[in-house]
Amino acid sequence: MGMNGQLNLDFGNKFASLPDDKKWQVVCEHLASKGLDSSLEVWLRQIKPLSLSGDKFVFAASSSFAKEWIEKRYLSLLKETLSQFEGNEVEVELRVVPEKRDKEKTPSKRKTQTGLPLNPRYTFETFVVGPSNRFAYSSAKAVSASPGSSYNPLFIYGGVGLGKTHLMQAIGNSILENFDANVMYVSGEYFTTQYIEALKDGKISSFRKKFRSVDIWLLDDIQFIADKERTTEEFFHTFNTLYEMGKQIVICSDRAPSQLQLFHPRVRSRLESGVIAGIRPPDFETRLAILEKKLEMEKASLPQEVLLYIAKVIQSNIRALEGALVKLLAWTSINNTLPSLPLAQEVIEDYIEKKEAKANVGIQDIISAISKYFGISPRTLRGKRKDKKVLLPRQICMYLCRELTPASVTEIAKVLGRTHPAVLNGYNRIKEQIERDKELASIIQKIISLLPSPFEVR
Ligand code: ADP
Ligand code: MG
User: Fold this and answer.
1) Is 443 helix (H, G, I), strand (E, B) or coil?
2) Which of 125, 254, 318, 351 most suits a substitution to test ligand 1, by most atoms within 8 Å of the C-beta?
3) What is the CA radius of gyration of the chain?
4) Which atom of ligand 1 is nearest to the CA of 129?
5) Atom of ligand 1 minimally distant from the CA of 158
6) Which residues pair with 263 in a beta bridge?
7) Ligand nearest to the CA of 221
8) How far is the CA of 260 from the centre of ligand 2 (A)?
9) Atom of ligand 1 at shortest distance to CA of 220?
10) Taken in order 231, 237, 243, 247, is the CA torsion positive or negative?
11) Is 127's C-beta closer than 6 angstroms to any atom of ligand 1?
Protein backbone atom coordinates (compact mmCIF):
# COMPACT_ATOMS: atom_id res chain seq x y z
CA MET A 1 0.00 0.00 0.00
CA GLY A 2 1.24 3.48 -0.62
CA MET A 3 0.54 6.85 0.80
CA ASN A 4 0.34 7.70 -2.85
CA GLY A 5 2.81 10.34 -3.94
CA GLN A 6 2.12 13.85 -2.82
CA LEU A 7 0.75 13.28 0.67
CA ASN A 8 3.44 10.88 1.65
CA LEU A 9 6.18 13.40 1.04
CA ASP A 10 4.29 16.10 2.83
CA PHE A 11 3.91 14.04 5.96
CA GLY A 12 7.40 12.60 5.75
CA ASN A 13 9.36 14.72 8.19
CA LYS A 14 6.44 16.14 10.15
CA PHE A 15 4.65 13.03 11.31
CA ALA A 16 7.14 11.70 13.84
CA SER A 17 7.08 14.96 15.77
CA LEU A 18 3.29 15.21 16.06
CA PRO A 19 1.63 14.55 19.44
CA ASP A 20 0.05 11.09 19.88
CA ASP A 21 -3.56 12.13 19.38
CA LYS A 22 -2.73 14.08 16.22
CA LYS A 23 -0.73 11.14 14.88
CA TRP A 24 -3.65 8.84 15.51
CA GLN A 25 -6.03 11.26 13.85
CA VAL A 26 -3.88 11.44 10.74
CA VAL A 27 -3.59 7.65 10.55
CA CYS A 28 -7.32 7.17 11.04
CA GLU A 29 -8.09 9.74 8.37
CA HIS A 30 -5.65 8.10 6.04
CA LEU A 31 -7.12 4.64 6.57
CA ALA A 32 -10.65 6.00 6.22
CA SER A 33 -9.69 7.71 2.99
CA LYS A 34 -8.61 4.39 1.56
CA GLY A 35 -12.11 3.04 2.10
CA LEU A 36 -10.79 -0.45 2.75
CA ASP A 37 -13.84 -1.76 4.50
CA SER A 38 -16.69 -0.08 6.27
CA SER A 39 -16.21 -1.77 9.63
CA LEU A 40 -12.55 -0.77 9.88
CA GLU A 41 -13.51 2.70 11.02
CA VAL A 42 -15.76 1.37 13.77
CA TRP A 43 -13.01 -0.89 15.02
CA LEU A 44 -10.43 1.85 15.01
CA ARG A 45 -12.73 3.75 17.30
CA GLN A 46 -12.54 0.87 19.77
CA ILE A 47 -8.88 1.53 20.44
CA LYS A 48 -7.17 4.56 21.97
CA PRO A 49 -3.51 5.44 21.62
CA LEU A 50 -1.56 5.03 24.87
CA SER A 51 1.89 5.76 23.55
CA LEU A 52 2.86 6.36 19.95
CA SER A 53 6.61 6.76 20.06
CA GLY A 54 9.72 4.63 20.31
CA ASP A 55 9.70 1.35 18.46
CA LYS A 56 6.59 -0.04 20.09
CA PHE A 57 3.25 1.75 19.72
CA VAL A 58 0.75 0.80 22.39
CA PHE A 59 -3.04 1.04 22.14
CA ALA A 60 -5.81 0.41 24.64
CA ALA A 61 -8.65 -1.84 23.50
CA SER A 62 -11.98 -1.58 25.29
CA SER A 63 -12.51 -5.36 25.58
CA SER A 64 -10.65 -8.57 24.97
CA PHE A 65 -13.10 -9.27 22.18
CA ALA A 66 -12.17 -5.99 20.48
CA LYS A 67 -8.50 -6.74 21.02
CA GLU A 68 -8.74 -10.15 19.40
CA TRP A 69 -10.83 -9.06 16.46
CA ILE A 70 -8.58 -6.11 15.70
CA GLU A 71 -5.45 -8.21 16.08
CA LYS A 72 -6.82 -10.78 13.72
CA ARG A 73 -8.04 -8.43 11.04
CA TYR A 74 -6.16 -5.18 11.24
CA LEU A 75 -2.91 -5.58 13.15
CA SER A 76 -0.68 -5.91 10.11
CA LEU A 77 -2.43 -3.02 8.41
CA LEU A 78 -1.89 -0.84 11.48
CA LYS A 79 1.72 -1.87 11.77
CA GLU A 80 2.41 -1.22 8.14
CA THR A 81 0.67 2.15 8.09
CA LEU A 82 2.27 3.42 11.28
CA SER A 83 5.71 2.28 10.16
CA GLN A 84 5.24 4.03 6.89
CA PHE A 85 4.20 7.33 8.44
CA GLU A 86 6.83 7.14 11.14
CA GLY A 87 9.52 6.37 8.60
CA ASN A 88 10.82 3.32 10.43
CA GLU A 89 9.63 -0.09 11.50
CA VAL A 90 7.37 -0.02 14.56
CA GLU A 91 5.71 -2.76 16.56
CA VAL A 92 2.08 -2.47 17.62
CA GLU A 93 0.68 -3.80 20.86
CA LEU A 94 -2.93 -3.83 22.07
CA ARG A 95 -3.79 -3.93 25.77
CA VAL A 96 -7.20 -4.44 27.24
CA VAL A 97 -8.21 -1.38 29.25
CA PRO A 98 -11.93 -1.53 30.05
CA GLU A 99 -13.69 1.80 29.69
CA LYS A 100 -15.02 3.32 32.88
CA ARG A 101 -18.78 3.00 32.94
CA ASP A 102 -20.85 5.96 33.77
CA LYS A 103 -23.09 4.48 36.48
CA GLU A 104 -26.00 6.78 35.88
CA LYS A 105 -25.97 6.02 32.22
CA THR A 106 -26.39 2.26 32.51
CA PRO A 107 -28.88 1.44 29.79
CA SER A 108 -32.05 -0.38 30.62
CA LYS A 109 -31.84 -4.14 30.50
CA ARG A 110 -33.75 -4.62 27.31
CA LYS A 111 -31.90 -1.98 25.32
CA THR A 112 -28.84 -3.80 24.10
CA GLN A 113 -26.72 -4.02 21.06
CA THR A 114 -25.07 -7.29 20.20
CA GLY A 115 -23.00 -8.66 17.35
CA LEU A 116 -20.69 -6.17 15.69
CA PRO A 117 -20.66 -2.55 16.91
CA LEU A 118 -22.72 0.06 15.08
CA ASN A 119 -21.08 3.17 13.70
CA PRO A 120 -22.77 6.12 15.46
CA ARG A 121 -22.14 8.23 12.35
CA TYR A 122 -24.47 6.08 10.27
CA THR A 123 -27.80 7.73 10.92
CA PHE A 124 -30.77 8.88 8.83
CA GLU A 125 -29.74 12.48 9.44
CA THR A 126 -26.35 11.96 7.80
CA PHE A 127 -27.83 10.05 4.86
CA VAL A 128 -28.42 12.11 1.74
CA VAL A 129 -31.55 11.11 -0.14
CA GLY A 130 -31.81 11.22 -3.92
CA PRO A 131 -33.69 9.40 -6.67
CA SER A 132 -31.22 6.49 -6.58
CA ASN A 133 -31.84 5.59 -2.93
CA ARG A 134 -35.20 7.16 -2.04
CA PHE A 135 -37.19 3.95 -1.89
CA ALA A 136 -34.56 2.15 0.22
CA TYR A 137 -34.40 5.16 2.51
CA SER A 138 -38.14 5.41 3.08
CA SER A 139 -38.42 1.66 3.61
CA ALA A 140 -35.65 1.84 6.20
CA LYS A 141 -37.44 4.76 7.88
CA ALA A 142 -40.67 2.78 7.94
CA VAL A 143 -38.92 -0.17 9.55
CA SER A 144 -37.44 1.96 12.28
CA ALA A 145 -40.77 3.65 12.96
CA SER A 146 -42.58 0.36 13.51
CA PRO A 147 -40.20 -2.60 13.54
CA GLY A 148 -41.58 -6.06 12.95
CA SER A 149 -44.70 -4.99 11.11
CA SER A 150 -45.24 -4.65 7.41
CA TYR A 151 -41.73 -4.23 6.01
CA ASN A 152 -40.49 -7.59 7.14
CA PRO A 153 -38.01 -8.73 6.07
CA LEU A 154 -36.54 -5.67 4.42
CA PHE A 155 -34.04 -6.65 1.77
CA ILE A 156 -31.70 -3.88 0.58
CA TYR A 157 -29.37 -4.51 -2.31
CA GLY A 158 -26.96 -2.54 -4.50
CA GLY A 159 -23.35 -2.19 -5.62
CA VAL A 160 -20.33 -1.55 -3.44
CA GLY A 161 -20.18 1.69 -1.48
CA LEU A 162 -23.71 2.86 -2.22
CA GLY A 163 -24.93 3.17 1.36
CA LYS A 164 -26.44 -0.22 2.24
CA THR A 165 -24.51 -0.60 5.48
CA HIS A 166 -25.15 3.04 6.32
CA LEU A 167 -28.91 2.62 5.96
CA MET A 168 -28.95 -0.66 7.82
CA GLN A 169 -27.02 0.76 10.74
CA ALA A 170 -29.20 3.86 10.69
CA ILE A 171 -32.11 1.53 11.37
CA GLY A 172 -30.20 0.00 14.28
CA ASN A 173 -29.14 3.35 15.73
CA SER A 174 -32.60 4.81 15.43
CA ILE A 175 -34.31 1.81 17.04
CA LEU A 176 -31.82 1.80 19.91
CA GLU A 177 -32.64 5.42 20.50
CA ASN A 178 -36.41 5.02 20.43
CA PHE A 179 -37.18 1.51 21.63
CA ASP A 180 -36.15 -0.85 24.36
CA ALA A 181 -34.89 -3.47 22.02
CA ASN A 182 -32.05 -5.86 21.49
CA VAL A 183 -30.48 -4.94 18.18
CA MET A 184 -28.08 -7.41 16.67
CA TYR A 185 -25.90 -6.38 13.78
CA VAL A 186 -23.80 -9.03 12.04
CA SER A 187 -22.09 -9.36 8.70
CA GLY A 188 -22.35 -12.53 6.69
CA GLU A 189 -18.69 -13.11 7.39
CA TYR A 190 -19.10 -12.65 11.12
CA PHE A 191 -22.15 -14.90 11.22
CA THR A 192 -20.14 -17.59 9.45
CA THR A 193 -17.14 -17.31 11.76
CA GLN A 194 -19.31 -17.43 14.85
CA TYR A 195 -21.22 -20.39 13.51
CA ILE A 196 -18.10 -22.34 12.63
CA GLU A 197 -16.61 -21.61 16.04
CA ALA A 198 -19.79 -22.78 17.74
CA LEU A 199 -19.70 -25.98 15.69
CA LYS A 200 -16.08 -26.55 16.60
CA ASP A 201 -16.67 -26.01 20.31
CA GLY A 202 -19.92 -27.97 20.35
CA LYS A 203 -21.84 -24.84 21.36
CA ILE A 204 -24.53 -24.73 18.74
CA SER A 205 -27.33 -24.52 21.26
CA SER A 206 -25.86 -21.48 22.97
CA PHE A 207 -25.17 -19.96 19.54
CA ARG A 208 -28.87 -20.36 18.75
CA LYS A 209 -29.95 -19.12 22.15
CA LYS A 210 -28.17 -15.84 21.50
CA PHE A 211 -30.58 -15.15 18.64
CA ARG A 212 -33.67 -15.92 20.65
CA SER A 213 -33.34 -12.67 22.55
CA VAL A 214 -32.83 -10.55 19.44
CA ASP A 215 -35.61 -8.13 18.50
CA ILE A 216 -34.01 -6.57 15.47
CA TRP A 217 -31.73 -8.66 13.35
CA LEU A 218 -29.51 -6.80 10.90
CA LEU A 219 -27.60 -9.11 8.57
CA ASP A 220 -25.18 -7.32 6.29
CA ASP A 221 -23.60 -8.78 3.15
CA ILE A 222 -25.59 -11.98 3.00
CA GLN A 223 -23.90 -12.88 -0.29
CA PHE A 224 -21.01 -14.05 1.85
CA ILE A 225 -22.98 -16.96 3.24
CA ALA A 226 -25.40 -17.66 0.40
CA ASP A 227 -23.28 -20.32 -1.28
CA LYS A 228 -22.23 -22.11 1.89
CA GLU A 229 -24.32 -25.14 2.62
CA ARG A 230 -24.39 -25.41 6.40
CA THR A 231 -24.18 -21.71 7.10
CA THR A 232 -27.21 -21.04 4.87
CA GLU A 233 -29.08 -23.76 6.70
CA GLU A 234 -28.26 -22.12 10.00
CA PHE A 235 -29.26 -18.76 8.57
CA PHE A 236 -32.57 -20.25 7.47
CA HIS A 237 -33.15 -21.61 10.94
CA THR A 238 -32.34 -18.28 12.58
CA PHE A 239 -34.48 -16.42 10.08
CA ASN A 240 -37.50 -18.63 10.66
CA THR A 241 -37.18 -18.54 14.42
CA LEU A 242 -37.05 -14.76 14.52
CA TYR A 243 -39.64 -14.27 11.83
CA GLU A 244 -42.14 -16.46 13.60
CA MET A 245 -41.58 -14.49 16.78
CA GLY A 246 -42.50 -11.33 14.89
CA LYS A 247 -39.00 -9.88 15.06
CA GLN A 248 -37.74 -7.42 12.48
CA ILE A 249 -35.21 -8.71 10.00
CA VAL A 250 -33.18 -6.53 7.65
CA ILE A 251 -30.81 -8.02 5.10
CA CYS A 252 -28.28 -6.35 2.83
CA SER A 253 -26.71 -7.84 -0.23
CA ASP A 254 -24.62 -6.77 -3.18
CA ARG A 255 -27.25 -8.24 -5.53
CA ALA A 256 -30.96 -8.95 -5.73
CA PRO A 257 -32.30 -12.17 -4.14
CA SER A 258 -32.87 -13.61 -7.60
CA GLN A 259 -29.17 -13.11 -8.41
CA LEU A 260 -27.80 -14.71 -5.26
CA GLN A 261 -26.10 -18.05 -5.75
CA LEU A 262 -28.17 -19.70 -3.07
CA PHE A 263 -27.13 -23.10 -1.88
CA HIS A 264 -30.71 -23.76 -0.83
CA PRO A 265 -33.05 -22.22 -3.38
CA ARG A 266 -35.99 -22.45 -0.97
CA VAL A 267 -34.34 -19.66 1.03
CA ARG A 268 -35.05 -17.27 -1.82
CA SER A 269 -38.79 -17.13 -1.29
CA ARG A 270 -38.09 -16.17 2.33
CA LEU A 271 -35.83 -13.35 1.27
CA GLU A 272 -38.39 -12.16 -1.24
CA SER A 273 -41.35 -12.37 1.10
CA GLY A 274 -41.07 -8.81 2.41
CA VAL A 275 -39.93 -5.59 0.80
CA ILE A 276 -37.05 -5.50 -1.66
CA ALA A 277 -35.31 -2.16 -2.17
CA GLY A 278 -32.48 -1.59 -4.63
CA ILE A 279 -29.98 1.26 -4.44
CA ARG A 280 -28.48 2.58 -7.67
CA PRO A 281 -25.38 4.73 -8.16
CA PRO A 282 -26.21 8.34 -7.24
CA ASP A 283 -26.68 11.07 -9.83
CA PHE A 284 -24.50 14.16 -9.99
CA GLU A 285 -26.70 16.31 -7.72
CA THR A 286 -26.81 13.63 -5.04
CA ARG A 287 -23.06 13.17 -5.21
CA LEU A 288 -22.55 16.88 -4.77
CA ALA A 289 -25.04 16.96 -1.89
CA ILE A 290 -23.19 14.10 -0.18
CA LEU A 291 -19.91 16.00 -0.44
CA GLU A 292 -21.52 19.13 0.97
CA LYS A 293 -23.10 17.22 3.82
CA LYS A 294 -19.83 15.62 4.68
CA LEU A 295 -18.03 18.99 4.69
CA GLU A 296 -20.72 20.42 6.91
CA MET A 297 -20.24 17.54 9.34
CA GLU A 298 -16.50 18.04 9.35
CA LYS A 299 -16.95 21.81 9.63
CA ALA A 300 -14.60 22.13 6.72
CA SER A 301 -14.70 23.73 3.32
CA LEU A 302 -13.16 23.34 -0.09
CA PRO A 303 -13.29 25.52 -3.20
CA GLN A 304 -16.51 24.98 -5.14
CA GLU A 305 -14.72 24.03 -8.35
CA VAL A 306 -12.91 21.29 -6.46
CA LEU A 307 -16.21 19.90 -5.13
CA LEU A 308 -17.76 20.00 -8.59
CA TYR A 309 -14.74 18.23 -9.94
CA ILE A 310 -14.93 15.40 -7.39
CA ALA A 311 -18.67 14.97 -7.91
CA LYS A 312 -18.12 14.90 -11.65
CA VAL A 313 -15.33 12.36 -11.88
CA ILE A 314 -16.18 9.92 -9.09
CA GLN A 315 -19.46 8.45 -10.17
CA SER A 316 -20.19 4.98 -9.04
CA ASN A 317 -19.00 4.62 -5.46
CA ILE A 318 -19.80 6.84 -2.50
CA ARG A 319 -17.05 5.34 -0.43
CA ALA A 320 -14.54 6.47 -3.04
CA LEU A 321 -16.23 9.87 -3.14
CA GLU A 322 -15.80 10.23 0.62
CA GLY A 323 -12.30 8.82 0.47
CA ALA A 324 -11.24 11.46 -2.03
CA LEU A 325 -12.78 14.18 0.11
CA VAL A 326 -11.12 12.96 3.30
CA LYS A 327 -7.79 12.77 1.55
CA LEU A 328 -8.14 16.35 0.36
CA LEU A 329 -9.13 17.49 3.84
CA ALA A 330 -6.10 15.72 5.31
CA TRP A 331 -3.97 17.48 2.73
CA THR A 332 -5.59 20.79 3.61
CA SER A 333 -5.03 20.41 7.34
CA ILE A 334 -1.41 19.34 6.98
CA ASN A 335 -0.57 22.11 4.52
CA ASN A 336 -2.79 24.70 6.07
CA THR A 337 -4.07 25.95 2.75
CA LEU A 338 -6.90 25.19 0.34
CA PRO A 339 -6.00 23.10 -2.69
CA SER A 340 -6.30 24.54 -6.18
CA LEU A 341 -8.14 22.51 -8.78
CA PRO A 342 -5.00 21.11 -10.48
CA LEU A 343 -3.58 20.17 -7.12
CA ALA A 344 -6.80 18.53 -6.04
CA GLN A 345 -6.79 16.58 -9.28
CA GLU A 346 -3.36 15.27 -8.43
CA VAL A 347 -4.15 14.44 -4.80
CA ILE A 348 -7.24 12.41 -5.61
CA GLU A 349 -5.99 10.89 -8.82
CA ASP A 350 -6.16 7.35 -7.45
CA TYR A 351 -9.85 7.58 -6.73
CA ILE A 352 -10.86 8.42 -10.23
CA GLU A 353 -12.30 5.55 -12.09
CA LYS A 354 -10.10 5.21 -15.13
CA LYS A 355 -12.81 4.42 -17.63
CA GLU A 356 -14.80 7.49 -16.75
CA ALA A 357 -11.83 9.81 -16.95
CA LYS A 358 -10.92 8.19 -20.23
CA ALA A 359 -14.34 8.44 -21.73
CA ASN A 360 -14.00 12.20 -21.81
CA VAL A 361 -11.12 12.22 -24.25
CA GLY A 362 -11.56 10.99 -27.79
CA ILE A 363 -9.13 9.96 -30.53
CA GLN A 364 -9.84 13.18 -32.44
CA ASP A 365 -8.89 15.26 -29.39
CA ILE A 366 -5.56 13.52 -29.27
CA ILE A 367 -4.94 13.90 -32.99
CA SER A 368 -5.59 17.62 -32.84
CA ALA A 369 -3.41 18.07 -29.73
CA ILE A 370 -0.55 16.22 -31.46
CA SER A 371 -0.83 18.19 -34.65
CA LYS A 372 -0.95 21.41 -32.69
CA TYR A 373 2.10 20.51 -30.63
CA PHE A 374 4.28 19.25 -33.51
CA GLY A 375 2.91 21.55 -36.15
CA ILE A 376 1.94 18.78 -38.57
CA SER A 377 -1.49 18.36 -40.06
CA PRO A 378 -3.82 15.51 -39.09
CA ARG A 379 -3.65 14.41 -42.71
CA THR A 380 0.10 14.01 -42.58
CA LEU A 381 -0.25 12.15 -39.31
CA ARG A 382 -2.61 9.70 -40.97
CA GLY A 383 -0.64 9.61 -44.21
CA LYS A 384 2.20 7.50 -45.57
CA ARG A 385 5.29 9.48 -44.54
CA LYS A 386 7.64 7.48 -42.34
CA ASP A 387 10.44 9.92 -41.58
CA LYS A 388 11.26 10.64 -37.97
CA LYS A 389 9.46 13.97 -38.02
CA VAL A 390 6.16 12.20 -38.52
CA LEU A 391 6.89 8.78 -37.08
CA LEU A 392 7.43 9.90 -33.50
CA PRO A 393 4.29 12.07 -33.32
CA ARG A 394 2.30 9.20 -34.82
CA GLN A 395 3.63 6.74 -32.25
CA ILE A 396 2.88 9.16 -29.42
CA CYS A 397 -0.59 9.46 -30.85
CA MET A 398 -1.06 5.68 -30.74
CA TYR A 399 0.26 5.57 -27.21
CA LEU A 400 -2.05 8.33 -25.95
CA CYS A 401 -5.09 6.91 -27.72
CA ARG A 402 -4.62 3.63 -25.92
CA GLU A 403 -3.81 5.17 -22.57
CA LEU A 404 -6.44 7.85 -22.48
CA THR A 405 -9.42 6.72 -24.51
CA PRO A 406 -11.63 3.68 -24.22
CA ALA A 407 -11.03 2.94 -27.91
CA SER A 408 -9.81 -0.49 -28.96
CA VAL A 409 -6.61 -1.05 -30.91
CA THR A 410 -8.68 -1.86 -33.98
CA GLU A 411 -10.52 1.45 -33.76
CA ILE A 412 -7.31 3.38 -33.29
CA ALA A 413 -5.76 1.57 -36.24
CA LYS A 414 -8.72 2.46 -38.41
CA VAL A 415 -8.74 6.16 -37.56
CA LEU A 416 -4.99 6.45 -38.08
CA GLY A 417 -5.03 4.39 -41.28
CA ARG A 418 -2.66 1.83 -39.79
CA THR A 419 -2.65 -1.92 -39.14
CA HIS A 420 -3.41 -3.49 -35.79
CA PRO A 421 0.22 -4.66 -35.22
CA ALA A 422 1.53 -1.25 -36.23
CA VAL A 423 -0.51 0.44 -33.52
CA LEU A 424 0.58 -2.09 -30.91
CA ASN A 425 4.16 -1.68 -31.99
CA GLY A 426 4.02 2.13 -31.83
CA TYR A 427 2.34 2.01 -28.46
CA ASN A 428 4.99 -0.34 -27.06
CA ARG A 429 7.85 1.74 -28.42
CA ILE A 430 6.66 4.81 -26.57
CA LYS A 431 5.70 2.92 -23.44
CA GLU A 432 9.24 1.54 -23.13
CA GLN A 433 10.99 4.74 -24.08
CA ILE A 434 9.01 6.95 -21.75
CA GLU A 435 10.49 5.09 -18.76
CA ARG A 436 14.04 6.14 -19.62
CA ASP A 437 13.59 9.27 -21.66
CA LYS A 438 12.78 12.29 -19.48
CA GLU A 439 12.50 14.60 -22.47
CA LEU A 440 9.93 12.36 -24.15
CA ALA A 441 7.99 12.13 -20.90
CA SER A 442 7.83 15.90 -20.65
CA ILE A 443 6.73 16.26 -24.29
CA ILE A 444 3.90 13.84 -23.62
CA GLN A 445 2.95 15.70 -20.47
CA LYS A 446 2.71 18.90 -22.52
CA ILE A 447 0.51 17.24 -25.11
CA ILE A 448 -1.78 15.92 -22.40
CA SER A 449 -2.11 19.44 -21.05
CA LEU A 450 -3.48 20.48 -24.46
CA LEU A 451 -6.29 17.93 -24.16
CA PRO A 452 -9.69 18.88 -22.79
CA SER A 453 -9.64 18.11 -19.07
CA PRO A 454 -12.08 15.52 -17.75
CA PHE A 455 -13.59 18.40 -15.80
CA GLU A 456 -14.98 20.05 -18.90
CA VAL A 457 -18.58 19.13 -19.41
CA ARG A 458 -19.02 18.11 -23.01
P1 ADP B 1 -22.24 -0.31 1.10
O2 ADP B 1 -22.56 -0.99 2.40
O3 ADP B 1 -23.38 -0.19 0.18
O4 ADP B 1 -21.02 -0.89 0.43
P5 ADP B 1 -21.71 1.92 2.83
O6 ADP B 1 -23.00 2.00 3.54
O7 ADP B 1 -20.57 1.33 3.58
O8 ADP B 1 -21.86 1.20 1.43
O9 ADP B 1 -21.37 3.39 2.32
C10 ADP B 1 -20.04 3.80 1.98
C11 ADP B 1 -19.79 5.18 2.51
O12 ADP B 1 -20.60 6.11 1.80
C13 ADP B 1 -20.17 5.30 3.97
O14 ADP B 1 -19.21 6.08 4.63
C15 ADP B 1 -21.51 6.00 3.95
O16 ADP B 1 -21.69 6.83 5.08
C17 ADP B 1 -21.43 6.84 2.69
N18 ADP B 1 -22.74 7.00 2.06
C19 ADP B 1 -23.34 6.12 1.24
N20 ADP B 1 -24.51 6.59 0.82
C21 ADP B 1 -24.68 7.80 1.41
C22 ADP B 1 -25.70 8.79 1.37
N23 ADP B 1 -26.79 8.63 0.62
N24 ADP B 1 -25.52 9.91 2.11
C25 ADP B 1 -24.41 10.08 2.83
N26 ADP B 1 -23.41 9.20 2.90
C27 ADP B 1 -23.53 8.05 2.20
MG1 MG C 1 -21.65 -2.64 3.29
Assistant:
1) helix
2) 318
3) 27
4) 23
5) 3
6) none
7) 2
8) 16
9) 2
10) negative
11) yes
Q: Residue 159 C-alpha to ligand 2 middle, in angstroms? A: 9
User: What string of pLDDT tens digits covers the 458 residues of the chain?
Assistant: 334 433 444 555 678 888 888 888 888 888 877 777 667 777 787 788 998 888 889 999 877 777 887 888 889 999 999 998 888 899 999 988 876 655 444 445 567 999 999 999 999 999 999 999 999 999 999 999 989 888 999 999 999 999 999 999 999 999 999 988 999 999 999 999 999 999 999 999 999 998 888 999 999 999 999 888 899 999 999 999 998 888 999 999 999 998 888 878 888 888 999 999 999 999 999 999 999 999 999 899 999 999 999 998 998 889 999 999 999 998 998 888 999 998 998 888 888 765 555 456 789 999 999 999 999 999 999 999 989 899 999 999 999 988 888 788 888 999 999 999 999 999 999 988 888 888 898 898 888 878 876 544 33
The residue nearest atom 25 of ligand 1, judged by CA position, is 127
Residue 220 Cβ contacting ligand 1 at under 6 Å: no
Angle (CA) 362 368 370, round 5°: 105
| Ligand 1 atom closest to Cα of residue 159 | 3
Q: What are phi and psi of 97, to 5 degrees?
A: -130, 100
**C-alpha 47, offset from chain centre:** 22
